């Protein structure tokens, strides 16, 4: 007897988020049609282009320095004047209120790459992580305000959240209109400083959720998809060093090397010199090198497993690698012991001797940091020689 066919279960699509869908569809279409047309028929003034660059920088840095590093991660504290400017610029970027943005971003970090819980999981593809997650009301995109109890206590943020629609209209229409009137190029500023600026600002930020999880290197961790990418940092105000950020999210920096392009870090640091920002959080150098060395050891071991060299040669490499593992473990143990000693020393030291204890501890911690740096350099050489031996 033939069993009757079972009805196919169809998972309904999430409902369309019409406000976001209209905004994110109409503005790019308008930009790619109106901006070239106006440029060819009327031309744009220097002031209009300056408004585009200036307002784009304001929007971009307000998202990176404000929404992201200040409010989402509390990586530093800022003077009320700085917070106000960042709030105005972030509102103009039209990426939702601080409360909604930060609630989603904290969920992203908590559940990074989870296909159901991460609001913009890269595991669901480029389109979804770039823009698709905003076009429909997916359950993962619902703002969980239990993530932001600290931010809900801020009257300034509560005001923005309550009056968000009015504020985005004022910042996106009234502000460019005033600038356009002041410089004598109303429509030029409205199109460049208003429309084009908004579209570019949107997609540069969206690249952090999409390309920064797909294109680049993972020097600190491979436990998630986040990547470090210099080229993306150029267009995202320093946010391209995303692999670092996902393992050390509370650091006010994303680019930590001297050659890294991170204007958001420079802005926060510069304001600190003016005493407009404070309590800048930095990850100790030892922790940075520890993460790098762990990845080097992991990659070296994985690389050895794929090679077809003579058994004796492979054994030599494994022995060398095991020695590095042992050295690494000893250094970590020394660090842990020193941390315990530092706590006890500071408890026991009298006020007049506290500076002596601090000087001693600083010297000992620096010695361990140098030891970890030396191993990092040694492992880099080891990996280079290993690859050369394979190709020789």
Describe the protein's topology.
Blueprint: H1 18-41, H2 46-72, E1 77-78, H3 80-92, H4 98-110, H5 126-135, H6 155-162, H7 164-183, H8 186-209, H9 230-235, H10 242-247, H11 263-273, E2 277-278, H12 285-305, H13 311-348, H14 354-391
Structure description:
- The protein is mostly helical.
- The protein folds into two domains: 18-278, no CATH class; 285-391.
- The protein is 66% helix and 1% strand.
- The protein is built from 14 helices and two strands; from the N terminus they run ααβαααααααααβααα.
- The protein has helices at 18-41, 46-72, 80-92, 98-110, 126-135, 155-162, 164-183, 186-209, 230-235, 242-247, 263-273, 285-305, 311-348, 354-391; strands spanning 77-78, 277-278.
- The protein has a two-stranded antiparallel sheet.
- It starts with 17 loop residues before the first helix and ends with a helix.
- Mean pLDDT is 88; it is low at 5-11.
Percent range of helical residues: 55-70%
What letter string, H or E per element, gives the SSE order? HHEHHHHHHHHHEHHH
Q: Structural class of the helices, strands and pairings?
A: mainly alpha
Q: Strand order, biggest sheet?
A: 1-2
Shape: globular
Low-confidence stretches: 5-11
Strand fraction = under 5%
* Number of separate strands: 2
């Amino acid at each position: 007897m033939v069993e009757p066919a079972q009805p196919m279960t169809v998972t309904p699509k999430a409902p369309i988020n019409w406000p976001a869908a209209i905004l994110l569809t109409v503005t790019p279409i308008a930009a790619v049609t109106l901006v070239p047309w106006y440029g060819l028929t009327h031309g744009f003034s220097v002031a209009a282009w300056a408004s585009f660059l200036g307002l784009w920088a304001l929007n971009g840095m307000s998202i990176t320095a404000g929404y992201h590093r200040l409010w989402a991660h509390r990586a530093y504290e800022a003077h009320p004047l700085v917070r106000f400017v960042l709030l105005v610029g972030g509102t103009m970027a039209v990426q939702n209120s601080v409360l909604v943005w930060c609630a989603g971003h904290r969920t992203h970090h908590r559940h990074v790459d989870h296909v159901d819980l991460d609001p913009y999981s890269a595991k669901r593809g480029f389109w979804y992580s770039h823009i698709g997650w905003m076009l429909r009301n997916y359950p993962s995109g619902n703002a969980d305000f239990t993530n932001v109890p600290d931010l809900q206590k801020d009257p300034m943020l509560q005001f923005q959240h309550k009056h968000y629609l009015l504020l985005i209209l004022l910042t996106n229409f009234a502000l460019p209109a005033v600038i356009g009137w002041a410089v004598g190029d109303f429509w030029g500023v409205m199109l460049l400083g208003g429309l084009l600026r908004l579209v570019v600002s949107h997609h540069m930020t969206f690249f952090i959720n999409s390309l920064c999880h797909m294109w680049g290197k993972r020097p600190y961790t491979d436990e998630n998809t986040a990547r470090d990418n210099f080229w993306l940092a150029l267009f995202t105000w320093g946010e391209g060093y995303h692999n670092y950020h996902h393992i050390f999210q509370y650091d006010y920096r994303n680019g930590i090397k001297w050659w890294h392009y991170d204007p958001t870090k420079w802005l926060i640091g510069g304001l600190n010199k003016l005493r407009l920002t404070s309590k800048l959080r930095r990850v100790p150098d030892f922790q940075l090198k520890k993460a790098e060395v762990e990845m080097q050891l992991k990659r070296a071991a994985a690389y050895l497993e794929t090679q077809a060299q003579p058994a004796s040669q492979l054994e030599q490499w494994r022995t060398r690698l095991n020695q590095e593992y042992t050295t690494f473990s000893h250094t970590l143990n020394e660090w842990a012991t020193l941390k315990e000693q530092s706590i006890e020393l500071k408890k026991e030291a009298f006020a007049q001797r506290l500076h002596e204890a601090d000087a001693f501890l600083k010297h000992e911690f620096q010695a361990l940091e140098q030891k970890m740096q030396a191993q990092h350099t040694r492992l880099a050489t080891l990996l280079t020689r290993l690859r050369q031996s394979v190709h020789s």
